[in-house]
Amino acid sequence: xxxxxxxxxxxxxxxxxxxxxxxxxxxxxxxxxxxxxxxxxxxxxxxxxxxxxxxxxxxxxxxxxxxxxxxxxxxxxxxxxxxxxxxxxxxxxxxxxxxxxxxxxxxxxxxxxxxxxxxxxxxxxxxxxxxxxxxxxxxxxxxxxxxxxxxxxxxxxxxxxxxxxxxxxxxxxxxxxxxxxxxxxxxxxxxxxxxxxxxxxxxxxxxxxxxxxxxxxxxxxxxxxxxxxxxxxxxxxxxxxxxxxxxxxxxxxxxxxxxxxxxxxxxxxxxxxxxxxxxxxxxxxxxxxxxxxxxxxxxxxxxxxxxxxxxxxxxxxxxxxxxxxxxxxxxxxxxxxxxxxxxxxxxxxxxxxxxxxxxxxxxxxxxxxxxxxxxxxxxxxxxxxxxxxxxxxxxxxxx
Length: 399
Hints:
Layout: E1 7-13, H1 20-36, E2 39-47, H2 49-60, E3 67-72, H3 78-100, E4 104-108, H4 110-122, E5 126-130, H5 135-141, H6 150-165, E6 168-171, H7 174-183, E7 191-193, E8 216-221, H8 230-243, E9 247-252, H9 258-266, E10 274-277, H10 284-289, E11 293-296, H11 309-316, E12 321-324, H12 330-337, E13 340-343, H13 348-362, H14 366-379, H15 382-398
């Protein structure tokens, strides 16, 4: 017997379906929501020649059938190519909305929202802007844009306009929500905070890790990106290894190893202290669980709107976290829950202070790991995030 579909949602992602972020911050939510409610997802992604085969294989393997449409991602020259991607995306969304009788358009990020806005409004479909942090400020923090440049001003104008015109929007942090309430109090009734959540069934601190247990392993997970401060993290590790001589820095990444190997060598960090692993997706939770602590340093420029995916994953695997100050709600959570240390400035003395504080926390052993796991369940549980998304869909449909 055919199951009656309660609502039909178009999810737009300005990335490939096989991108790791789509699994952790897209498909994982869709699976949980589909189990809770009769929701039919349509999906629009942007693929490259390199991603298309793996994306097709990934979509084919999903238990919950998703109606997938893709466009080929154009990237050169950058600005004209992005404009053309948006235009082609608009036409594709018009077609999907009509063909699939969509009730809600779920646009993840600024470019996806620019693609969704006109078709959703003209066809009277509910438009949900899942901001995932504001892209313009992230680009400035990554050195890709100047805050005084025309493109930055255009992107900020677009983000503010979309917040006003959308039917609902989400933010990643309560820090950002407070700013919105102070500056755009008229928007607070159509706003929800949903951090980047983690699948606690997958990321589990009870897993047996297979890293070298004879050393203290501090781990970095994910891409290096443009705003992650690799040099500063290496500086921190150099101080750490002077205090804990058996320390090793583990990088779990698909990025070019030379982006770490060369600066590490320049700083006098020897090869045996660094390990760069290109992990299979299914092996990541166990590798994390085998480490002693997780780390990320991010350019703090206007990062009040940022919820790093790796934060929840570290905590879920029982790892205390070393982070710099000014990153979303991370400072507040780390200090309130006592699940790591916060670096207030990038200096040797500050690194020493933080390392001795970390050593004190680590002396708690299993109690600390349990506390980290509890914090992950409290703030970053995937079930909680999915429930919030489903509530938004129902609210939009009812209105």
